[in-house]
Specification:
By secondary structure, the protein is α/β, with parallel strands linked by helices. It has one domain (about 25-315): Alpha/Beta hydrolase fold, catalytic domain (Rossmann fold). The protein is about 30% helix and about 15% strand. Strands 1-2-4-3-5-6-7-8 form an eight-stranded mixed beta sheet, sandwiched between helices. The radius of gyration is 19 Å and the shape is globular. The N and C termini lie far apart (about 50 Å). This is AB hydrolase-1 domain-containing protein.
C-alpha cells in the first residue's frame, strides 16, 4: 500500500510547500490558478489568446512570439499553470471537462470577453479538444501544435490507433496502458528505470529526429529555466494526473464547432505518430491540418513557427 500511495502534494503557500511568486486567481471551487501574461495590454488588444502548456510544462512555457507580431496584430496572450503544475492548486477530480471549464473561468476572471482564442502544445492539446466539446460558444479559434492523441478516443479508429500505439517503445506502451486502465499504479511505475519511457526520460534521445536532437542539445547548453518549478508540488497531481486524464476514457465524439481549428504536426514526430494525426484530420475534415516536413515533436522551438501558428490562427 505504501509503495502504491504517492506522497501528498506540497501545496504552494503552505508551510511545507513552495512560495507563491505568480499572480493567481481563485476559482469558484476554491482552487488557486497561477498565470503569466505577454503581449499588448489586454484592454488595448484586438485578440486575446490563452496558451495551454504541455506535459511537464508550466505558465513559463508560454510561446515565444516576436514583439513585431504581438504588437502588429495587437495580441494579448496569457498562459496558466494547469491544476497541480507550477503554482496552481492540485485537483484530484480533474477531468477533460474540468480542463475546459478552468480555461473558461480564467477568461472570465481576466475579463477577456465573450470570445477568445486557445493555443495548445503537445499534452496541452487535449484541453483544446475539451474546449471544442464543452465551451465551443466561447471560442474564436483553436490551434494545436503536435497535440497528443488519446489512443482510446472514439473519434479515432481502433485500427489506426492500434497501429500507432504498436509503434511506441515498450516502456511507453506500458506507461500509457497504466494511465488508461490503472492510474493508481502510476506512482510505483514511475520509479522503474529498467525500461526507457517518456515518463522517466531514459533513452529519450533514441526516439528524437535530427531537429529535436539539435534543439535539445542547444537547450541543455543554455539551461532550461523553470523546469523544476513545473512539478514542484509533486508529480502525482501534475504529471501522473495529466496522463490519467489525457489517456483516460473520452466518451465523446467531436462535431464541427463552427470555429477555425488548426493542427500543426511534424512528419518526423516520434512521440505523437504522424499516422494517427493524419487520420484524425481526415475523420474531422473541418480541421485545417498543417504537416511540417523534417520536423519532430518540439515545434515551439522551430525557428519562426510560433509566429506562423499565431498569424495563421488569427488570419482565419
Amino acid at each position: 500500500y505504501l509503495l502504491l500511495k504517492p506522497p501528498p502534494p506540497k501545496i504552494c503557500g503552505t508551510r511545507r510547500g513552495p512560495p507563491i511568486t505568480a499572480p493567481r486567481i481563485r476559482l469558484r471551487d476554491g482552487r488557486y490558478m497561477a498565470y503569466k501574461e505577454q503581449g499588448v495590454p489586454k484592454d488595448l488588444a484586438k485578440h486575446k489568446v490563452i496558451f495551454v502548456h504541455p506535459f511537464s510544462g508550466s505558465r513559463h512555457s508560454l510561446l515565444q512570439i516576436s514583439q513585431e507580431v504581438l504588437e502588429g496584430l495587437s495580441v494579448y496572450m496569457v498562459a496558466f499553470d494547469r491544476a497541480g503544475y507550477g503554482e496552481s492548486d492540485p485537483f484530484p477530480e480533474r477531468s477533460v471537462k474540468s480542463e475546459a471549464l478552468d480555461i473558461q473561468e480564467l477568461a472570465d476572471q481576466l475579463q477577456l470577453g465573450q470570445k477568445f482564442y486557445v493555443v495548445g502544445l503537445s499534452m496541452g492539446g487535449y484541453p483544446c479538444w475539451a474546449c471544442l466539446k464543452h465551451i465551443p460558444h466561447r471560442l474564436a479559434g483553436v490551434a494545436m501544435m503536435a497535440p497528443v492523441v488519446n489512443y482510446w478516443w472514439p473519434s479515432a479508429s481502433k485500427e489506426i490507433s492500434g497501429e500507432a500505439f504498436s509503434s511506441r517503445p515498450l516502456g511507453d506502451k506500458i506507461t500509457l496502458r497504466i494511465a488508461h486502465y490503472a492510474p493508481w499504479l502510476m506512482h510505483t511505475w514511475s520509479k522503474q528505470t529498467f525500461l526507457p519511457s517518456f515518463l522517466n526520460g531514459i533513452g529519450k534521445e533514441k526516439f528524437m529526429n535530427k531537429m529535436d536532437l539539435e534543439i535539445t542539445a542547444a537547450r541543455k547548453n543554455a539551461g532550461i529555466p523553470h523546469q523544476e518549478t513545473a512539478i514542484q508540488q509533486g508529480t502525482s497531481e501534475s504529471l501522473h494526473r495529466d496522463l490519467a486524464v489525457g489517456f483516460g476514457k473520452w466518451d465523446f465524439f467531436l462535431a464541427n464547432a463552427g470555429v477555425p481549428v488548426h493542427v500543426f504536426q511534424g512528419d518526423e514526430d516520434n512521440l505523437v505518430p504522424v499516422s494517427i494525426q493524419r487520420h484524425v484530420a481526415e475523420k474531422l475534415p473541418w480541421i485545417n491540418y498543417h504537416e511540417l516536413p523534417g520536423v519532430g515533436h518540439l515545434l515551439d522551438f522551430v525557428p519562426g513557427l510560433n509566429d506562423k501558428v499565431l498569424t495563421t490562427l488569427l488570419a482565419s
